[in-house]
């Protein structure tokens, strides 16, 4: 897909990777960017940005947004939650929170926008997943399960929407230098670099996007030997 002159919608656009995606879409010539956030503010100096309020857990609101933003060609499901950690020790409510945002949230948004994306000539969806979609990291087992569910959803969408002309991309970032992992001491990639690699992948028509050095290595391992990745993450 050509980003220049396209109309995009980004969820969780107020900070972190979502904010970088909005900035880069504008820099690459997007005609309009619907920047959705839970508080609906997403202040931005560029007149092409249309801020909209959206909590992705609210299916009714996703339908209202879809009725307002009828010209979206590139839908980026970026909003994400890291509320749960160990599957054994995490509060069940936190395990459910991650599924509500990372799986059902993506599903609500896609269901609301699917008819109009299908009606467009050249539409695409990007689901921002995680390397933890490909194999579980036990310390993040709850989050990983929600991101694995979103990966399975992405595969289902390829089957359902792909044949109707909608390209469905998966992005599998490794650690990104944002609030989500602020307290975790490990090598991280900047959100600007991850956003650049994701949009490069969309422009190039890459289905599975590994947007940083860690994820390139992880995706290559997953494609070669998924059990090796499972063992590596579990150790
Ligand atoms: N950071 C990493 O290491 C990393 C690695 C791999 C994948 N990812 C994925 O990358 C995406 C972006 O994360 P990030 O690193 O930019 O994290 P972040 O800085 O914590 O930002 C998360 C964004 O998601 C929004 N959000 C959370 N729950 C929401 C809901 N119910 N409805 C709408 N928006 C909601 C947040 O909005 P509020 O400001 O209202 O909370 C915020 O805009 C996520 O899908 C995340 O899982 C991140």
Folded structure, characterized:
- By secondary structure, the protein is of the alpha/beta class.
- The chain has one domain (about 5-235): Rossmann fold (3-Layer(aba) Sandwich).
- It contains 7 helices and 7 strands, in the order βαββαβαβαβαβαα.
- A 7-stranded parallel β-sheet has the order 3-2-1-4-5-6-7, sandwiched between helices.
- The termini are far apart.
- Bound molecules: NADP nicotinamide-adenine-dinucleotide phosphate.
- NADP nicotinamide-adenine-dinucleotide phosphate binds near residues 12, 55 and 128.
A few lines on this structure:
The chain has 235 residues and is of the alpha/beta class.
What topology emerges from the helices and strands here?
Elements: E1 7-10, H1 16-27, E2 32-37, E3 49-53, H2 59-68, E4 74-77, H3 92-119, E5 123-128, H4 141-161, E6 166-171, H5 191-204, E7 208-209, H6 213-224, H7 226-234
Parallel strand pairs: 1-2, 1-4, 2-3, 4-5, 5-6, 6-7
Helix pairs in contact: 1-5, 2-3, 3-4, 6-7
NADP nicotinamide-adenine-dinucleotide phosphate binds at residues 11-12, 14-18, 37-38, 54-57, 78-81, 101, 105, 128, 130, 173, 175-176, 178-181.
- Termini gap: 39 Å
* Low-confidence runs: none
Q: Looking at CATH, which topology would you report?
A: Rossmann fold
Output the CATH class name.
Alpha Beta
Count the DSSP helices.
Answer: 7
CATH-wise, what's the superfamily? NAD(P)-binding Rossmann-like Domain
Task: Give every kind of bound small molecule, once each.
Answer: NADP nicotinamide-adenine-dinucleotide phosphate
Task: Round the Cα radius of gyration to an integer and report it.
Answer: 17 Å
Structural class: alpha/beta
Q: Give the rounded overall mean pLDDT.
A: 97
Strand content: 5-15%
Please give the domain count. Answer: 1
What is the molecular shape?
globular
Order of helices and strands: EHEEHEHEHEHEHH
- Return the CATH architecture: 3-Layer(aba) Sandwich
Helix content: 40-55%
């Amino acid at each position: 897909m050509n980003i220049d002159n396209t109309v995009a919608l980004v969820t969780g656009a107020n900070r972190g990777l979502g904010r970088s995606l909005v900035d880069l879409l504008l820099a690459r010539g997007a005609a309009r960017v619907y920047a959705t956030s839970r508080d609906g503010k997403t202040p931005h100096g560029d007149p092409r940005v249309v801020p909209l309020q959206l909590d992705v857990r609210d299916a009714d609101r996703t339908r209202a947004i879809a009725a307002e933003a009828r010209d979206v060609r590139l839908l980026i499901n970026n909003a994400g939650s890291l509320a749960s950690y160990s599957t054994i020790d995490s509060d069940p409510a936190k395990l459910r929170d991650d599924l509500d945002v990372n799986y059902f949230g993506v599903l609500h948004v896609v269901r609301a926008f699917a008819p109009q994306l299908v009606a467009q000539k050249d539409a695409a969806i990007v689901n921002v997943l995680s390397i933890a979609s490909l194999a579980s990291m036990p310390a993040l087992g709850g989050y990983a399960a929600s991101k694995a569910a979103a990966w399975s959803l992405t595969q289902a969408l390829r089957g359902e929407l792909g044949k109707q002309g909608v390209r469905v991309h998966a992005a599998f970032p490794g650690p990104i230098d944002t609030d989500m992992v602020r307290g975790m001491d490990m090598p991280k990639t900047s959100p600007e670099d991850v956003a650049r690699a994701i949009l490069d992948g969309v422009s190039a028509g890459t289905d599975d996007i590994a947007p940083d050095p860690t994820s390139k290595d992880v995706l290559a391992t997953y494609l070669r030997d998924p059990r090796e990745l499972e063992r590596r993450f579990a150790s």
